Amino acid sequence: MNSKRVAIVTGSSRGIGAATAKLLAGKGYRVCVNYRADAAAARAVADELVSAGATAIAVQADVSLEDDAVRLFKTVDKELGPVEALVNNAGMLLPQMRVENMDAGRINRILATNVTGAFLCCREAIKRMSTRHGGRGGSIVNVSSAAARTGSPGEYVDYAASKGAIDTLTRGLSVEVAAEGIRVNCVRPGFIYTDMHADGGEPDRVDRLADSIPMGRGGSPEEVAHAIAWLLSDEASYVNGTFIDAAGGR
After folding, report:
1. Tally of domains within the chain
2. Which are the catalytic amino acids?
3. Within a domain: 1
4. How far is Cα of residue 203 from the mean position of the Cα atoms in its chain?
5. Is the pTM of this model over 0.85?
6. Which structural domain, as residue segments, surrounds residue 134?
7. Measured CA distances, 93 to 69, 113, 184, 192, 201 (Å)
8. Could you count the other beta carbons within 10 Å of the beta carbon of residue 136?
9. Looking at residue 225, which CATH number applies to its domain?
10. Is residue 87 in some structural domain?
11. Per-residue DSSP letters for 4-70?
12. Mean pLDDT by 10-residue block, N- to C-terminus, for the chain (250 residues)?
């Protein structure tokens, strides 16, 4: 069913992005594994997909940079074909910090990757997907965070705010392009076992907070990937502007 669909998964050298790339490849998508810096990890993911019989490429691009985002989509055009599925997964957080200690450099770095990058990738995807531009339609899934609802006080209010912007992007864009054959939805992961927590200075953060999760445990990247894949699929053909909280009930 999906053998001719091209998917771009941003930030897919690890964690939720890598799990999503692998799941989509297994469902027949041709996958672009996008990465910012870790070429070895991204190529390992792409090689694994190719070894399993899928079509996959690894493309370096810092999606917060406009020229990089444009180059990413042009490379996919050339090597895989026009994108019909976009997963805006690329995101970053910085060491835990109270707002009173944040400087503009930190805040802008978070917003550039988590917000500007998603907007730029949506823009490029719309140009290719929209029936207004001769496209065949498509599906976009933005990866937000449960932090958009909780605010992540004392740790990552800047990150949480950036994900709040992703929620608003999802809602507004889903209405803007609904009549052009494009669905836009969002998954909000909670405490998931990924390397991102080490970026924030606390690799074992999920274990520390597990008792605050109604289900009593952290989630796996694969559990989030299944929600993303469903929203991309034809099974969700009448789902638009919707949020799935993959947060264990939190």
Report:
1. 1
2. 159
3. no
4. 21
5. yes
6. 6-246
7. 20, 10, 24, 14, 10
8. 13
9. 3.40.50.720
10. yes
11. T-EEEETT-SSHHHHHHHHHHHHTT-EEEEEESS-HHHHHHHHHHHHHTT--EEEEE--TTSHHHHH
12. 81 96 98 97 97 97 98 98 97 94 98 98 98 97 96 95 98 98 97 71 75 86 97 98 93
